[in-house]
UniProtKB/TrEMBL annotation, chain A:
Family to which the UniProt record says this protein belongs: Belongs to the leucine-binding protein family.
Pfam families given in the database record: Peripla_BP_6
UniProt keyword Mitochondrion, yes or no: no
Signal peptide: 1-27
Domain Leucine-binding protein: 35-372
Listed name of the protein: ABC transporter substrate-binding protein
Annotated organism of origin: Azospirillum griseum
GO biological process: amino acid transport
């Protein structure tokens, strides 16, 4: 543990070493001598594959579209590992902003860390583009005038998967929940949707983050007799629970069904279709939906060797929109750019006519998908069949519903 | 019918105890290797988790690259990991025996980070799927739970390995040499026994056990670079509770803590990854040498 801390300290020391001192903020033009984009995410733990270096690759792709320069100043992308620890994450964010002249922080999966970083960026009036974290609190009670929640959130997942499964006859639910901010919120949002749709919640079990053996929790879920066993967890935890659920014959009996509430394409890739087949999921992005998405994803694949997750594709979209707003506002001053971002519609390969609410929620269509059977898939990464489009204003909460105090 | 035990139906309790036993099997196998290495070499082998992961990866590579199946992997992977261990011991570890324990710990910890980092670089963290071998698919309905055949096999295999290791060290002549060599290497060398070779082989055996545990774990968990670090801290706690260097202690504590963890997952799941450490703290306060350790 200590050694991890040391590694973190060394990493931050390294970023100080290479950093240029930040110039004084001015209302016009770019502060410092570059627009610095800090991609902060899990680069070594269970959430690495859903964001990680891929999010930085996506951010660089957005920067390249502007020729690597904006308002005459270069665009730089730097990265760091928050190790899923809120204290480390907020320290790096503070360091980046105070000493390294970072203008915007991108990604930050793990809702616990994102909530901590949101406090920092709100204080310092810097833009925070969130693609990785899930909790809807980030645009609710913990919202910030400079915080933007981009790819998805717990409420959208709940609406998508929750409603769809109840409609298919999944009337009773049992939750397997990751025991931290994200899991709790996802469980709460989904339970609310399930009840609204006429379903019933039989119970829940909370497991520690990064658990290697789920058999005990699965057994409890099995004995609950609920028709749907919902996984309110993510990344490595979801992969392990799905794999072990199949080992323990949870779904073979036909009486119980698994619902992966947050499933990324990287998870499906790791599990293999024979284990993951027929899972229903909600996603903000799938590469094989239209020509624009395919072309961008192909480019991403050539650089990174994997197809993009919704987090990585969202990072591209958010950074691109941010840069466009700087261009339009003629400054990189946080609050000014934030206001500009909210004025402009989001139109790119990720979102069509996306709009940003006052609380920072980027509203765009979400998709309900089913994981293909091995026989239906034409090859690697041909994983989803899109069942339905969930219109943005159904998927995401309105400002009033969100409980964000910013709203005028 | 019977009522409930502390509000939990007995069926559910049996199920959880059985699952605890399965997890305990891994704890026992891994802490056994650690105990053997510490007992004979006085090295706190922090690379153990990484070598366990390596065992799983070797079997995955054997399967996907060479088409070598599970049963052969069970034999080949521990040998490869053991050979790697010999190389590690000969080139690096053997230079540190005269120094404090701490140096061995730091060296092996560094090695663990490098091995893990290497695998992470090439294979990512989400891991690779390893199928359960044909012969062990499916499961038994025990009435109170569904027991996958493969998990049953893990318990049996681990019991056999633990028992025979204990017998080999406590009851055979080779084991007697080993124990003597740790007490007084100079004297044993004077009797014409090649102590450095014996030490290397002991280390190899210890890490081969980790490799074997890795092969056993491959079909249950995702074969992932992180699988070792997820487990190793708990396994160290097991060894500390059992008593550093005590082989029987390591094995019994491994199974015992597996059971206890299983119970925690029923009564208070949130604490399931802390309970082992709480016990460790209590044991250290009452019996600093561990439950089965001798005070020196």
């Amino acid at each position: 543990m200590n050694a991890r801390l040391l590694a973190g300290a060394a990493l931050t020391a390294l970023t100080i070493g290479t950093a240029l001192s930040a110039g004084s903020a001015s209302a016009q033009g770019v502060s410092g001598d570059a627009v610095k984009i800090g991609v902060l995410n899990d680069r070594s733990g269970l959430y690495t594959d859903l964001g990680g270096e891929g999010s930085a690759v996506a951010a660089r792709m957005a920067a390249e579209e502007f020729g690597g320069k904006i308002l005459g100043k270069p665009i730089q992308v730097i990265t760091a590992d928050h190790q899923n620890k809120p204290d480390i994450g907020s320290n790096i964010a503070r360091q980046w902003i105070d000493q390294d002249g970072v203008d915007v922080i991108v990604d930050v999966p793990n809702s616990g860390v994102a909530l901590a970083v949101q406090e920092v960026t709100r204080d310092k009036k810097k833009i925070f583009l969130m693609e990785g974290p899930a909790t809807s609190r980030l645009t609710g009670d913990a919202c910030s005038p400079t915080g933007f929640h981009w790819a998805y959130d717990t409420r959208a997942l709940a609406v998508g998967t929750g409603r769809a499964m109840v409609k298919q006859g999944g009337s009773s639910w049992y939750f397997l929940t990751a025991d931290y901010a994200f899991g709790h919120q996802l469980e709460a949002d989904t339970a609310a949707e399930v009840k609204k749709a006429g379903g019933q919640v039989m119970g829940a079990v909370r497991h520690p983050l990064n658990t290697s053996d789920f058999s005990s929790f699965l057994l409890q879920a099995q004995s609950s007799g609920a028709k749907i066993v919902a996984l309110a967890n993510a990344g490595g935890d979801t992969i392990t629970s799905i794999k072990q659920a199949s080992e323990f014959g949870l779904t073979q009996s036909g009486q119980q069904k698994l619902a992966g509430l947050l499933l990324f394409i990287s998870d499906v890739h790791a599990l293999g279709l024979s284990v993951a087949q027929d899972l229903v999921l909600t996603t903000g992005f799938y590469w094989d939906m239209d020509d624009e998405k395919r072309a961008w994803s192909k480019k991403f694949f050539d650089k990174f060797g994997k197809m993009p997750t919704m987090v990585q594709a969202g990072s591209y979209s958010a950074v691109r929109h941010y840069l466009k707003a700087i261009e339009a506002a003629g400054t990189d001053d946080g609050p000014t750019v934030a206001a500009k971002m909210k004025e402009m519609p989001v139109n790119d390969m990720f979102a069509k006519n996306g709009k940003i609410l006052a609380n920072g929620r980027m509203v765009h269509d979400m998709y309900l998908a089913r994981v293909k059977k091995p026989s239906e898939s034409k090859g690697p990464w041909d994983y989803y069949q899109i069942l339905a489009t969930i219109p943005g204003n159904e998927a995401f909460a309105t400002v009033e519903e969100s409980g964000c105090k910013l709203a005028k | 019918m019977m009522g409930t035990i502390f509000g939990i139906p007995p069926q559910a309790l049996f199920g959880q105890l059985l699952l605890g036993l399965i997890n305990g099997s891994f704890y026992a196998l891994l802490s056994l290797g650690l105990a053997v290495i510490f007992g004979m070499l006085n090295v706190i082998n922090f690379a153990h988790g990484a070598l366990y992961m390596m065992g799983a990866f070797v079997s995955w590579l054997l399967l996907t690259q060479l088409g070598v199946g599970y049963w052969w992997a069970l034999l080949i992977a521990p040998i490869i990991v053991g050979l790697f261990g010999i190389a590690l011991e000969k080139t690096l570890l053997s230079r540190l025996y005269k120094l404090d324990h701490l140096y061995g710990l730091l060296l092996t910890f560094g090695c663990a980070l490098m091995i893990e980092g290497g695998f992470r670089h090439f294979y990512g963290v989400s891991g690779q799927p390893y199928p359960i071998p044909e012969a062990l698919r499916g499961g038994q309905n025990l009435g109170f739970m569904f027991l996958p055949n493969y998990r049953g096999w893990v318990v049996v295999a681990s019991l056999i390995v633990c028992l025979s290791t204990w017998l080999a060290i406590e009851k055979t002549k080779l084991g007697a040499y080993l124990r003597a060599a740790t007490e007084n290497p100079v004297l044993v060398q004077a009797f014409g026994i090649n102590v450095p070779v014996m030490v290397s082989l002991t280390y190899a055996f210890g890490v081969a056990l980790a490799g074997l545990a890795g092969v056993l774990a491959a079909p249950i968990y995702q074969v992932s670079p992180l699988m070792g670090s997820n487990l190793i801290i708990v396994v160290f706690a097991v060894v500390v509770i059992g008593g550093m260097g005590s082989i029987l202690g390591a094995v019994l504590t491994g199974y015992g803590l597996g059971l206890l963890e299983g119970l925690t997952k029923v009564f208070y799941p949130e604490a399931s990854n802390i309970v082992v450490f709480v016990i460790m703290a209590v044991v250290l306060m009452i019996k600093p040498a561990g439950l089965f350790g001798r005070e020196r």
